[in-house]
Automatic annotation (TrEMBL):
<dbReference type="GO" id="GO:0003677">
    <property type="term" value="F:DNA binding"/>
</dbReference>
<dbReference type="InterPro" id="IPR036390">
    <property type="entry name" value="WH_DNA-bd_sf"/>
</dbReference>
<keyword id="KW-0238">DNA-binding</keyword>
<dbReference type="Pfam" id="PF01638">
    <property type="entry name" value="HxlR"/>
</dbReference>
<protein>
    <submittedName>
        <fullName>Transcriptional regulator</fullName>
    </submittedName>
</protein>
<keyword id="KW-0804">Transcription</keyword>
<feature type="region of interest" description="Disordered">
    <location>
        <begin position="132"/>
        <end position="156"/>
    </location>
</feature>
<feature type="domain" description="HTH hxlR-type">
    <location>
        <begin position="1"/>
        <end position="93"/>
    </location>
</feature>
<feature type="domain" description="HTH hxlR-type">
    <location>
        <begin position="158"/>
        <end position="249"/>
    </location>
</feature>
<dbReference type="InterPro" id="IPR002577">
    <property type="entry name" value="HTH_HxlR"/>
</dbReference>
<keyword id="KW-0805">Transcription regulation</keyword>
<dbReference type="InterPro" id="IPR036388">
    <property type="entry name" value="WH-like_DNA-bd_sf"/>
</dbReference>
Length: 292
């Protein structure tokens, strides 16, 4: 999962795709991305099964890039990222738009709920155990994930997900944050559990503490309110990964909702009408000053 979506350009292209963009020129117009990078990312996303490349014009040949079911299923992850960055990362070059629910007509925030009992769920009401295909060693990416853009023209707008990339854009960071959510808090325990090189782990912990995702106290690293608010990103990403990269042995992680006692299946709902969200029912609403 991290190898596929652990890249900011990929997330930005997915965002535009979910908003209806399919053609190369529109991607290029809406993103501060070079032609070479856009071409490579579209090719990679097609190979990864997120997009289908289809011919829409002959003489000259022109193609459009349409979301596959695998790509479209990432909308809960993108929605969760959107909400977290909007609420907890104020250093954006431009203010991120609010989310508008077409069904009830209200601006909203997404909530994680349990499909079985329909109750709103936080990390405190879940337990996690390894499934048949799960373990920390098997969950570590073999290769580094792609780096996010960070210089030149990309610094103007490509930082739409700057702090999300500190979680998804590094091979150890996502696992480190998951480990913190299940109760790990000491450096030696992180090292033993994840098998991460101490220098890499120390660097990730420094990034998370500087970004106020973790707080260092008495030799322990504890989740802050901002860190706990990243819970929907972790859950939706994990759920997408387990659906689209399933192992024949069974799931890697089994989550259980302690309030109802059932295995947990996350559903995003609207905090205004409590209705289940669909990707096609979510629109962006920009401030009037930013409207074009």
């Amino acid at each position: 999962m991290l190898g596929v979506v652990g890249d900011e350009w990929t997330l930005l292209i997915l965002q535009q795709s979910l908003l209806g963009v399919t053609r190369y020129r529109r991607f290029a117009a809406r993103l501060p991305i070079s032609n070479a990078v856009l071409t490579r990312r579209l090719s990679t996303m097609t190979a990864d099964g997120l997009l289908n490349r289809t011919l829409y014009q002959e003489s000259p040949s022109r193609y459009e890039y349409v979301l596959t079911p695998r790509g479209r299923a990432l909308w809960p992850v993108l929605t969760s990222i959107w909400e977290w960055e909007r609420r907890w990362v104020p250093e954006h070059a431009e203010r991120l738009p609010t989310m508008h629910h077409v069904v009830c007509g209200a601006d909203f925030s997404p909530r994680i709920t349990c499909r079985t009992c329909t109750q709103v769920v936080t990390e405190k009401e879940l337990t996690a155990v390894w499934g048949p295909s799960g373990s920390w060693p098997r969950s570590m990416p073999v290769e580094s994930t792609r780096r996010r853009p960070g210089s030149g023209t990309t610094s103007q707008r490509a930082g739409l997900f700057p702090e999300t990339m500190s979680i998804l854009g590094n091979r150890w960071a996502f696992a480190l944050l998951v480990s913190a959510f299940v109760g790990t808090s000491r450096f030696n325990d992180f090292t033993e559990q994840l098998g991460a090189p101490p220098t890499s782990l120390a660097h990730r912990l420094q990034i998370f503490t500087t970004g106020d995702v973790l707080q260092a106290s008495d030799g322990r690293y504890l989740l802050t309110e901002k860190g706990r608010a990243a819970f929907p990103i972790l859950i939706t990403a994990l759920q997408w990964a387990q659906r689209w990269f399933a192992s024949p042995e069974g799931p890697a992680v089994i989550l259980r909702h302690t309030q109802c006692g059932n295995e947990f299946d996350a559903v995003l709902t609207c905090d205004q009408c409590a209705g289940s969200l669909r990707g096609t029912d979510v629109e962006e609403r920009r401030p009037a000053s930013a409207a074009t």
